[in-house]
Amino acid sequence: MKVLVPVKRVVDYNVKIRVKPDNSGVDLSNVKMSVNPFCEIAIEEAVRLKEAGTATEVVAVTVGSSASQEQLRTCLALGADRAVLIETDADAQPLGIAKALKALQEKEGAELVIFGKQSIDGDNSQTGQMFAALTGMPQGTFASEVKIADGRIDVTREIDGGLQTVSLKLPAVVTTDLRLNEPRYASLPNIMKAKKKPLDVVTPDELGVDLTPSVEVLSVEPPAERQAGIKVESVEELVDKLKNEAKVIS
Amino acid sequence: MPHGLDELFSARALKRDPDTLAQWGCDWTRSFTVAPSAVVFPESVEEVVALVRLANESAFALVPSGGRTGLSGGAVAGNGEVVVSFDRMNRILDFSEADRLVRCQAGLVTGALQAFAEEKGLYYPVDFASSGSSQIGGNISTNAGGIKVIRYGLTRDWVAGLKVVTGSGEVIDCNQGLVKNATGYDLRHLFVGAEGTLGLVVEAQMRLTRAPAPQQVMVLGVPAFPDILKVLAAFQATLTLSAFEFFSERALTKVLAHRDLQRPLPESVPFYALLEFDEPDMDRAMSVFERTVEEGWVTDGVLSQSEKQAADLWALREGISESIAPYTPYKNDLSVRISLMGEFIEEVDALVAASYPDFEVCWYGHIGDGNLHLNILKPADLDGEAFYERCHAISPKIFEAVRSRNGSISAEHGVGLLKRDFLGFTRSESDLAIMAALKRVFDPNQVMNPGKLLPG
């Protein structure tokens, strides 16, 4: 079984985001970039399926600039067999990405496609679902556990107030939630081996897709700064301030 | 009971209840008597001056108190002293971008200075496990080091100016933020590492620097200790390291038992080295790694792929002190020249094993600085007093091993009460006489942290 894992290059989740002074976007200079954490979980799951003998090949793919090769190399170091970069400098958006991935899937014919449930930059949580709709594949989103047997995949989903298990016929789409697994460290010998694994670059044109954004970003604003708190001397003063200044009690 | 405090401090700033006395009267050490008579929380330099003058007039002693994370008893008040807490003098007073200088009060938490620098697009590089509670005044008074010394040096290197209230109650401004100042004795450096025995640091001008490139963290498995030094040399010959730490498998086992962290390598290895370096140096670091494997020094290694993994790998090293705390370890913070570390560790291991074969010895430290943290863990079936007694019995032998290599009996934890009586293993008779004479100049009436560092 071939597993396709779409991943995304994003600003590291531990980096404090700075907005550009002209509000045109987020400042990416001298900022640590990483594999989107949910995509890292997707890679880990695919590699575990391969280690268990369920999967035969793991292919990592991303849509992005040539700098994204760095993240694909990470995926190769973590255990993916080969990688594909669909190279574009456009600010690709979920629908365009889903269409590009569909075109790639038609060539690859993977039986399982594992997405992260969302990327932490755009927070859209759309690409996996759009891809499933475009390809007509069944989807199990927000997975916290997957089991594969007899041409089917059982996906345990984290839903409000509990867990739901859905059973999908392969080929299928899964999107990962945080509790699915804990990604491993990349071992240095594997990082070295990853340099020799195949990484193909294709253009959107070759796949016959148009990645021109359909949504235009007008302005990016940082969250309003919180005002500093104050210390009060007594309970009376606290009650007085809650009543007359904050007006949260009467 | 010291007189006159009630006239100087409001009830809010003067505490005598048992909880406050117990908490503010000590640091992280647990083996010294804690018995202060009061704790005061001054809010201004003027209040500190009035307090020091009162201490001189009424003949009571003062113990400065910062984040209380010290490991040598330097901030322990055991003889009815008045503890001077800087918790309420924790403000940043001004910042100059052109000078890259922050002027702050002594009670500013180290982590708050780091965060402020980051906000300004700059960097305060002195960092260690307790930076979330330790204070700048305490960092200065102990010349704190930590995990980035190999690249950025010690606290001393970042102090551009100090305002100090001396033991006689005089206020002196040292250096005032200058880079160049060739006007004789640089008094600033006398107060760095003085452990509050000459005066109270009330304000500091701290230098900031350019923020580094994003960092990569590597953990390598090294079967034989002497090879760690070869690995260090190989990396340093090729790139700038921001950190080079080591820990033993024994230390790692304690951390993994204590915290929910992944083992860094699939197989256990006797020693681990943790390296941090700039991301752009990645390719060079990989080629050095290849060489260390070919040489047989390193068996395996991992590289962080995100800041989260970097933090998790660091937690393996920074979590050690906390993980072994339940074993009430006997701690020693020693330094010898890097080239002598291998034989030194061997000698100490043999010393402990010869006297107490059932004691577990746990090594870790900032090996890039020649700094070793020796921890002897208390066996569960031995009571605390008997354990410390036995450890103290071998202390002189360990210190002799330090002396014979011209090392230091306290690399970065300070002297305080813990190492005071052993100072002669590192400092000469004439050194000690000059130190005592200096103390008399700044603190004629012995009110400043008496009994710490030098005999009271």
Provide a descriptive summary of the structure in words.
The complex is a heterodimer of chains A (250) and B (456). Chain A has 250 residues and is an alpha/beta fold. Chain A contains seven helices and twelve strands. Chain A has helices spanning 37-51, 69-78, 94-108, 127-135, 188-194, 204-207, 235-244; strands at 2-6, 9-11, 33-35, 57-64, 82-87, 112-116, 139-149, 152-159, 162-169, 172-176, 186-187, 199-202. The longest helix of chain A has 15 residues, at 37-51. The model of chain A has no long low-confidence stretch (mean pLDDT 94). The longest helix of chain B is centred in the last third of the chain and has 20 residues, at 384-403. In chain B, 33% of the residues lie in helices and 21% in strands. Chain B has helices at 5-8, 18-24, 45-58, 110-119, 136-142, 149-152, 188-191, 225-236, 249-258, 282-294, 307-318, 320-324, 341-355, 384-403, 429-442, and strands spanning 14-15, 38-40, 62-65, 82-85, 92-96, 101-105, 122-123, 159-166, 171-174, 199-207, 209-210, 215-222, 241-248, 271-278, 300-303, 330-335, 360-366, 371-377. In chain B, helix 8 packs antiparallel against helix 10. The two termini of chain B are 20 Å apart. Chain B is of the alpha+beta class. Chain B folds into four domains: 5-85, Uridine Diphospho-n-acetylenolpyruvylglucosamine Reductase, domain 2 (2-Layer Sandwich); 92-210, Uridine Diphospho-n-acetylenolpyruvylglucosamine Reductase, domain 3 (2-Layer Sandwich), CATH 3.30.465; 215-321, Alpha-Beta Plaits; 328-429, 2-Layer Sandwich (Alpha-Beta Plaits). Chain B is built from 15 helices and 18 strands. A seven-stranded antiparallel sheet of chain B has the order 15-12-14-13-17-18-16, with helices on both faces. Chain B has a five-stranded antiparallel sheet with strand order 5-6-10-8-9. Chain B has a four-stranded mixed sheet with strand order 1-2-4-3, with helices on one face. Chains A and B meet through helix 2, strand 11 and helix 5 of A and strand 12, helix 10, strand 15 and helix 11 of B.
